[in-house]
Amino acid sequence: MTAKDKLDKPLLQARTSEELLARKPRKPTAAECCGGGCAVCVNDIYAQELAIWEDECMRELQYGPGNRGSQQGPAISPDYYKSFVLQNIRKMTECCSKYTFAIDDFGCLGYGVGQHLIMRASVDGEIVTRQYTPVSHPSALTLGTLLYIMQVYPKGKMSKYIKTLKEGCSVEWRGPLGGLDYKPNTHKRMLLLAAGTGIAPMVQVLRHITSMEEDYTMVRLLFGTAKYRDIYLKDELDELKHFWNVSILYCLSDENSRTPVNEQADLLLVLT
Fold first, then answer.
1. Can you give the pLDDT of all 272 residues of the chain as single tens digits?
2. Is 182 marked within a binding site?
3. Is residue 158 annotated as involved in ligand binding?
4. Rounded to whole angstroms, how far apart are CA atoms 53 and 24?
5. What is the β-pairing status of strands 246-252 and 267-269?
6. Is 155 annotated as a binding-site member?
7. CA within 20 to 30 Å of 98's CA: 118, 146, 188, 253, which one?
């Protein structure tokens, strides 16, 4: 039995600082779970977050209020949160920006294909977590940077926090989690579907396939956005199109979207 098991939870909460108590994760309501057997269920994430919070409480009891001990080890872990400094914010569209975080000591996260990280923040007194897939190129990771594209929504809880982010502030992350069990040449052809910032894991897959000379899988990506200007990471996607086994079609839903004439061969207007 661990020390955590021996300590009564009400006593644990009573002896923990108000700041940490306020960070206790909220249990999802029944309406927040679709019941579809998702690979990453909101209830699973809640159980993980609760275990992490209890561990943080135990460390505070051990090291004293406001001092939860140092987290030694890898640059990041799926078992606890670490803070990363936001180095740069580059606006991509009206509601989407690219965020660059610094990795301590120019470390490498070493995440796999399709893996994501979880960001944690306090919004109006409630702890909110969201999953984001990095778009960092492996070579960029060796330089100690972590890149994300994040979109803000008018009524989004995490969006409210993202809007407040400034260069130099610290943001909590943990991971990597999830991932794809991809094996070269398992299938002759693959069809990838993405919309908006959902392009992030697809870019990881395309990079992985094109990095292996002996992978002959033919890949077709359909990327849906409203306007031409909303095609995120287009420069890199256009580079990936140069590989013999990759083809990409951009699907736009706004019939008034202005597109360059030389790009129209790779565009499809989808009217809804």
1. 444 444 455 544 545 566 666 777 778 888 788 887 777 787 888 787 777 777 777 666 555 555 544 445 567 788 888 899 999 999 998 899 999 998 875 556 667 788 889 999 999 988 899 999 998 875 554 467 889 999 999 999 999 999 999 999 999 998 888 878 788 999 999 999 999 999 999 998 999 999 898 999 999 999 999 888 889 999 999 999 999 999 999 998 887 776 665 566 577 766 55
2. no
3. yes
4. 6
5. parallel
6. no
7. 253
